[in-house]
C-alpha cells in the first residue's frame, strides 16, 4: 500500500504519534493507501511553519512574485490533471469524466488569482479633516486553516487556497479523512512550483484530533470550511471564542423550478444534472424539483424514463453516469432518508433501493430515486440527503413557487426554467439563494462569487469577492505639522 505523510514546512513528515489509517476505494471496497493519522502536535508543527513563513520569506516577496508562483502552479496542475483525477476517483468514487474536468479546470483559479496578486490596491480617502492624509491598506490575515470536504477535494481547495495565497496569507489544510490522498499528491506540485517552505502545509486525520486542534489554535487567523451545516455551526462557535475570521460554505436543499413555458427537454436534463450528477453528492444539488402543476405528470413521466436509463457502475468508465456513494456513513444516511420519505407518505416512482446489478462490486450504490406526492414540510424536502434522491413538489404560479422555494433553512442555490425573461428576472430577484441559474444548472466559474444565504453559510468564494475574505482593512492617518489641537477633543 502507498503511504502518505503530512506535508509540513516544505518537508514530508511522519505523524507525531506514529499512527496511520487506511483510505478505501468506494467502488471496490478495498483499502488502497495509508494516511498519516495526525494529532494536536502535528497541527502545532504545521501552524508554526505557516506562521514562520508568513512572518518571513512569504511576506517579504513582492505580490508579483507570489502571482508568478500561482501561475506556475496552474501550469503544473494542467500537466498532471489526469493523474490527480485518478487519485480523486479512487478516493471518493465520483466519475472520472467529472473529476478530470474539475482537476483540469481548477488550474484557472490559480491563474486568475495569480493575476490578481499584484492588483490589491488601497485608496486615498478624501476626508473632511484639514492638513491630514488618510489612506487605506489591505493586508493579509495571516495563517488560514482550510478544512475541505470529500466530494470535490481539490476543486474546493482551489476556491480557498488560490485567493488566500494571492492575498498574501499562508495555509494549513485539513482534508477529509475519507479523501486525503489527492491533496497530499497536490502538495508535490506546491513543492515543484517553488513555494517557500511553510507557505502551504497539509495535516491529515480526523476532526476530533486535527480539525478541533486547528480551529482552536491561537495562531490561526481564519478558518475556511466547506462541509455540513452541523459541522459548520460547531466551527463557527469554536472560532467565536477567539474572534477568528470564518468563511463557511455549508449545505443546501436547492429548488429547481420548472414553469410550463420552459423548454421541457432542456429542463428534464437540467433536473437530472441537478440531482443525479455526482451521485447527488454536491451541496448545490437541485434536490427539490418544483413543477408547475399543468406539466407535472408529463414531466415526471419523461424524467423517470431518462433517469431510469442511467448507467450505474465503475466511475473510471466514461460510459458510467452514476457512481457509488463515497462513504459508508453517507450510504446508510441516503438509504435511511429513502425510508423516511416512504414513512412520510411520499410515492417512490423510481429507484428507492440499493443497486446490486452489473458493475456494482463495492456495495455502496443507490439507484437514482424520485419521490412524488412530496409536501415541502416533509423531512425529505427540508433536510439535506446528499445523495441521488429527488423530491418533486407541484406549484400553481410564481407566488406559489417562491413561497415553496424560500420556505427552507438553506439558501445556497436555485434553478429557474422559463422562456419568460420577465419571470426569470423576478424569480432571480426574490429567490433567497446565493446563486440562481436560469435555464441551466451547476455552472460555476473562477470569475463569479459563490456562497449561500441563511444556513448555507457565511462569505463568498471565487471571483473578486473572494479575495476580500482573506484581507483586513487598515486606515492610516498622516497629519502635517500644525498647531496642537485641544487634546481632550476628538479630532
UniProtKB/TrEMBL annotation:
GO terms for molecular function: oxidoreductase activity, acting on the aldehyde or oxo group of donors, NAD or NADP as acceptor. InterPro entries: Ald_DH/histidinol_DH, Ald_DH_C, Ald_DH_CS_CYS, Ald_DH_CS_GLU, Ald_DH_N, Aldehyde_DH_dom. The active site is at residue 249. SUPFAM superfamilies: ALDH-like. Keywords: Oxidation, Oxidoreductase. CDD domains: ALDH_DhaS (cd07114). Residues 12-476 form the Aldehyde dehydrogenase domain. PANTHER family: ALDEHYDE DEHYDROGENASE-RELATED. Belongs to the aldehyde dehydrogenase family. This is Aldehyde dehydrogenase.
Amino acid at each position: 500500500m502507498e503511504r502518505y505523510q503530512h506535508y509540513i514546512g516544505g518537508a514530508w513528515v511522519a505523524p507525531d504519534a506514529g499512527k496511520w489509517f487506511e483510505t478505501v476505494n468506494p467502488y471496490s471496497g478495498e483499502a488502497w493507501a495509508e494516511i498519516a493519522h495526525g494529532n494536536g502536535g502535528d497541527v502545532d508543527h504545521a501552524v508554526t511553519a505557516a506562521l514562520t513563513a508568513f512572518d518571513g520569506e512569504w511576506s517579504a516577496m513582492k505580490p508579483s512574485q507570489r502571482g508568478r508562483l500561482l501561475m506556475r502552479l496552474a501550469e503544473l496542475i494542467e500537466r498532471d490533471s489526469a493523474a490527480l483525477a485518478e487519485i480523486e476517483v479512487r478516493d471518493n468514487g465520483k466519475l472520472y469524466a467529472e473529476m478530470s474536468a474539475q482537476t483540469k479546470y481548477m488550474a484557472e483559479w490559480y491563474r486568475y488569482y495569480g493575476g490578481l496578486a499584484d492588483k490589491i490596491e488601497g485608496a486615498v480617502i478624501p476626508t473632511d479633516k484639514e492638513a491630514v492624509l488618510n489612506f487605506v491598506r489591505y493586508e493579509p490575515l495571516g495563517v488560514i486553516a482550510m478544512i475541505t470536504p470529500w466530494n470535490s477535494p481539490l476543486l474546493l481547495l482551489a476556491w480557498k487556497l488560490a485567493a488566500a495565497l494571492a492575498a498574501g496569507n499562508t495555509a494549513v489544510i485539513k482534508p477529509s479523512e475519507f479523501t486525503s490522498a489527492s491533496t497530499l499528491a497536490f502538495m508535490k506540485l506546491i513543492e515543484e512550483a517553488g513555494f517557500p517552505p511553510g507557505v502551504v502545509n497539509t495535516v491529515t486525520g480526523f476532526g476530533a484530533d486535527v480539525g478541533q486542534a486547528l480551529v482552536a489554535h491561537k495562531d490561526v487567523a481564519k478558518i475556511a470550511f466547506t462541509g455540513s451545516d452541523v459541522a459548520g455551526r460547531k466551527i463557527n462557535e469554536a472560532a467565536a471564542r477567539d474572534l477568528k475570521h470564518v468563511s463557511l460554505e455549508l449545505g443546501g436543499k436547492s429548488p429547481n423550478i420548472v414553469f410550463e413555458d420552459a423548454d421541457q427537454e432542456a429542463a428534464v436534463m437540467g433536473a437530472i444534472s441537478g440531482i443525479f450528477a455526482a451521485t447527488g453528492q454536491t451541496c448545490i444539488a437541485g434536490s427539490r424539483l418544483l413543477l408547475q402543476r399543468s406539466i407535472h405528470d408529463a414531466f415526471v413521466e419523461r424524467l423517470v424514463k431518462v433517469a431510469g436509463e442511467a448507467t450505474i457502475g465503475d466511475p473510471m468508465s466514461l460510459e458510467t453516469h452514476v457512481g457509488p456513494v463515497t462513504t459508508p456513513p453517507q450510504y446508510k444516511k441516503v438509504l435511511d432518508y429513502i425510508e423516511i420519505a416512504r414513512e412520510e407518505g411520499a410515492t417512490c416512482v423510481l429507484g428507492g433501493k440499493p443497486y446490486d446489478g452489473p458493475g456494482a462490486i463495492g456495495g455502496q450504490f443507490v439507484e437514482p430515486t424520485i419521490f412524488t406526492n412530496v409536501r415541502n414540510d416533509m423531512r425529505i424536502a427540508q433536510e439535506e440527503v446528499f445523495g441521488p434522491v429527488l423530491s418533486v413538489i407541484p406549484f400553481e404560479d410564481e407566488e406559489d413557487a417562491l413561497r415553496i422555494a424560500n420556505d427552507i433553512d438553506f439558501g445556497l442555490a436555485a434553478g429557474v426554467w422559463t422562456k419568460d425573461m420577465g419571470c426569470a428576472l423576478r424569480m432571480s430577484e426574490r429567490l433567497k439563494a446565493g446563486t440562481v441559474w436560469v435555464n441551466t444548472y451547476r455552472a460555476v466559474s473562477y470569475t463569479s462569487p459563490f456562497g449561500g444565504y441563511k444556513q448555507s453559510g457565511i462569505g463568498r468564494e471565487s471571483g473578486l469577492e473572494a479575495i476580500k475574505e482573506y484581507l483586513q482593512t487598515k486606515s492610516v492617518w498622516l497629519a502635517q505639522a500644525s498647531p496642537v489641537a485641544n487634546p481632550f477633543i476628538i479630532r
